[in-house]
Specification:
Length: 267
């Protein structure tokens, strides 16, 4: 790769070690899901195991994002892309996919999912910023601040949308419940623990729906009736908020230094 690509950013020894630690953790997670979770007798855990199996495999591929970009696009301006992008991706994968997922922190604390979606928006913002910075190194023109703002926000929204499509697709194929469908929640818990009362099921929706209230006078609340929509829209909004916060920090703290802040007309 080094003969084909010139002047690629150097990856420190510490970064390389960190990247391979994350990959090793994902390999462990993959085989744990394959041999243990997917062999459970109950539908709830089979679906959960299948979801984690796909998740760990996809995450493993994402740990090579920077290397793949350098290999296929190393002769373009993308060779300037900083390995900091991979550092952020791997940190998110380690916390979100390995720690939170396999220690069931999403189920224990409802706000964990919100924090991870906010973090995903922030990491996407950093990645979008680094892409423009790599482009800046290959042009005599300075990229305008408005371009940076619009590009970062747009990519945050697109990535958030792609993730929700992934959740919907996995739910449809594997029968999991990443988007918190009330009917599927009742079905899964019934198959696990036998007879489940209406109030028990509603309580589980409240537990899984980021704090949505319990039933009122024996009737489902609006949030519970639309639990999938509520989950999807909350995730996208929180990711957008995380992206905007990161964007403000990047623009206020680093734009002038990284992009030199001057306004140059584009020829």
């Amino acid at each position: 790769m080094r003969q084909r690509i010139k002047n690629i950013p150097e990856v420190s020894k510490g970064e390389k070690i960190f990247w391979w630690v994350v990959r090793a953790a994902l390999i462990v997670c993959f085989f744990y899901s394959l041999f243990f979770l997917t062999n459970e007798n109950h539908t709830l855990y089979k679906a959960d195991g299948g979801t984690k199996l796909i998740q760990s495999l996809a995450a493993f591929g994402l740990t090579f994002t920077w290397s793949i970009v350098q290999f296929f696009f190393g002769k373009t301006w993308l060779h300037n892309l900083s390995p900091r992008v991979q550092d952020c991706i791997n940190a998110f994968i380690l916390i979100g996919c390995c720690v939170c997922s396999y220690l069931y922190l999403y189920e224990r604390w409802w706000f964990t999912d919100l924090l991870m979606h906010a973090a995903s928006g922030a990491i996407t913002a950093v990645g979008a910023y680094e892409v423009l910075l790599a482009m800046q190194h290959n042009t005599k023109h300075h990229i305008e601040k408005a371009t940076v703002v619009i590009w970062i926000f747009s990519l945050v929204i697109v990535i958030g949308c792609i993730w929700e499509v992934y959740e919907f697709t996995v739910d449809c194929i594997l029968g999991s419940n990443m988007q918190i469908r009330f009917d599927r929640l009742i079905s899964n818990w019934s198959s696990y623990g036998g007879r489940v009362t209406f109030d028990d099921a509603a309580g589980k929706v409240a537990e899984y729906s980021k704090g949505a209230p319990f039933t009122v006078a024996g009737k489902l609340t609006t949030q519970q009736l639309n639990s999938s929509l509520y989950d999807t829209m909350t995730d996208m909004i929180v990711a957008a908020v995380g992206g905007v916060i990161a964007e403000i920090v990047l623009i206020k703290g680093f734009f002038k230094k990284d992009f030199k802040g001057s306004k140059v007309s584009m020829d």
